[in-house]
Each structure stands twice: as C-alpha cells, then as structure tokens.
C-alpha cells in the first residue's frame, strides 16, 4: 500500500453507525414526534433495547462517550429512578405482542452499578418488556476493580455476552490516556464471567492512541489472544479536543500520524488473521463459529452486530433510538433527562425523520460497511425507479476510481482488498449530507 494512497484517504469521515449521522439530528423531532412514532409501531414488532449508564469511576482521557466520573453512588441511584420510570413509560406506549430480541447496556460503565441495582434494573426490563428467551443480553464492562459479586449479579440477570474494554496494555499508553489496567485483572474478569456461565466474551481495542506503535499494539493483541475472546473490535481513536474538553489532556504531538495509524490497523488485522479470526467489515474480528462471522450482519451505534430488530429503543440520557420513521435521541444532560422523565413525558431532545432518499442511501451505506459491496439488485427491488439516481452515482464512482478500491460486479460493485481500509471514504460518496469540513474520525 503506497504512502500517497494512505494519506489521500486519511481525511476525516463519519463512522456510519447511522445514516443520516447524529450531527444532522434536529430539535424539530421532539417528544411529541417520538410518541407518535411509538404509537404507530405494528403489533408483534421486534425490538432491540440500548440502555445507557452515563457514569464511570474515573474518566479516561481518550473517551468519546457521554459519561462523567462520580465519587459517590448517590447520583447513580437517582439516575436509576429516572431510568426505571422511562422504561415504564416507553413500555406503556408499545403495541401488544412486541418481542425484545436484543439488549445492550453501555456507558460509561454499567458495572458501576451495585449488584442489587443490576438485579433491579434487569427485572424492570423483563417486567415491562416482552423479552424473548433466546434474546442476546450484552453488557460493556470495565474490568478494573470489578468484583465477583457484581459478576454473579450480571450472570443471574441473564447476561449472555460481555465486552471487556482493554484499549491497550502498554503502560506508557495507559498513562497518556489515564487508564491503568493490567492484563491480569482483565484476565480475571474474563475467567470469572466464564465460570458464571457467560461464555461469549468480546474485547475492545483502540489504535491511534498517544505513544502507540505497531510494535506495542502487536504486543497488546498477543496478550488479548491469550484470553481467546469470541470477538475483537479495533476502533481508531478520534481526537476531537475542540468538542471533548478532556481530550485536551492528550498532547497532539504524541499521536501517531495517518501512515502509522494505518500500519497499526494493518498489523492488528495480520496478527488476528494468523490466529484464525475472520475479519468482519472494517474493524471487527470473530472466531469462525461466532454468529458475527457467519450470520446476517448489521451496523448500529455499537458497531457491527447481528442485531436485526425492526426498532431500536434508546433508554437513558443521550441514548439514541431508531424507529421505521427516523432517529430520536434523549437529552445528554442527566439533570434535564431526569426532569423530563419526572414530568411523566419523554426525554427526546432531537432526531431526524427519514425521507425515502435517506432510507435508500442509508441502506447502501450500511451494506457497503457490512458486506463491502454496493447492493444494486436489492436497491432496485426495494425502491424501484426511485433508486436510479444512486445507481448512476455508483457507475460514475466505478468510472472515476483510479486507485482500484472497487471493482465491477455486474450492475453493482465490490470493494477490493486494497479498498477495504478505506470503505468509510467509499461510503461517504453516497452521503448527501457529508461535509468535509465537519469534525469526524480520521479516515484510516
């Protein structure tokens, strides 16, 4: 891969965990709109739940999540009162016969919850929603200082998959991002979950962090392989200090450049391929027997997933949901979120109603990100003559491609191995909202 090619496609582009992306959400979509959309859901709709816990014991300087560090448990307990009220309020608006097929708790750190509150929150979910027996229940976990009592509580609550945050095991990198975490405590958490019957283990890594090199990231991946996780995600760090004040504690001078970032991502891919992992989409890896490696692939705000539910309900401060009509997001401020919920309403702050053009372009972008292919046939079947403009754009992109990033496949095209690292940039060609001057994650 030439250095010129890497530099050319290193310009920031969206991660495309939604389309349109969150910066294009508007306050024009508020609680009344969300309530109308919920009421219009058909009986028997399949639901996915994302539940946000916006608290951590300490703040990692690289973090881009909506969270804050707390030293007392009181704010967490108060927040849970509002969260359970939202669960009840949303459930009352749902149609009969709905079925929850996927649950994901994220943060922040869901394991900041006490064992009693883990139990109470899981019971509230099952009391108010019709959760299928085979539903996947995934939780993001910070292994640092994690005790056996809370691990047992998650297992009793029905958790089936955990994602262990690692980022990097190198001490110099950890010091630069304010996240000190040993391999041994991470290993203890993985083994304890397996002992309690939670066998599906994911590990989240980040490349492009301060002081990282290809050599240090290779060492981290090799240690992670000792845990033999079912899935590994390797996200590229997005340095956005103008938007995230705590990232200003990271010196830009310590960050790897575009070529080094690309080298780190490539090194991760090679090491995991040699270890027998299947590469999924852009930045996820799974063992051959895992559903992520062999099933129908989708993409949402947690990255790549096997969750193909019709509707995603976002619960908690800042949580984003998707309904057939569009996206909704709750207030990010926990105080404003609690006030709205306490008044007996919904906490929706903004969102976007989808046009047919949004749906078509979103479908194309998701299939490019998941299948590395432009879905010409499916696009025609779904949208008929309305898809002609996008089909013409695809042909124009093929003709303009001088870097061999894509190749023709009948009326469609496929992303080549050479183009795979740049699939977000390829997807951006179909994004009618894309603004090259906006703040996004680096392209590679």
Describe this structure in a few short sentences.
Helix content is 37%, strand content 21%. The protein has helices spanning 3-8, 31-39, 74-92, 115-128, 148-157, 171-177, 183-195, 214-225, 258-274, 291-294, 334-342, 356-371, 376-383, 388-400, 423-428, and strands spanning 46-53, 55-56, 68-69, 99-107, 131-141, 161-167, 200-207, 231-236, 278-280, 284-286, 298-300, 303-305, 311-315, 320-323, 326-330, 348-353, 373-374, 406-409, 412-415. Strand 11 (298-300) and strand 12 (303-305) form a beta hairpin.
3D structure, described in words:
By secondary structure, the protein is α/β, with parallel strands linked by helices. It folds into two domains: about 20-315, pyruvate-formate lyase- activating enzyme (Alpha-Beta Horseshoe); about 355-435, Arc Repressor Mutant, subunit A (Orthogonal Bundle), CATH 1.10.10. The protein is built from 15 helices and 19 strands. α8 (about 215-225) runs parallel beside α9. The chain starts with a helix and ends in a 16-residue tail after the last helix.
CATH class term of the largest domain: Alpha Beta
Mass-distribution shape: globular
Give the spatial strand order of the biggest sheet: 9-10-8-7-6-5-4-1-13
Helix share, percent: 25-40%
CATH architecture of the largest domain: Alpha-Beta Horseshoe
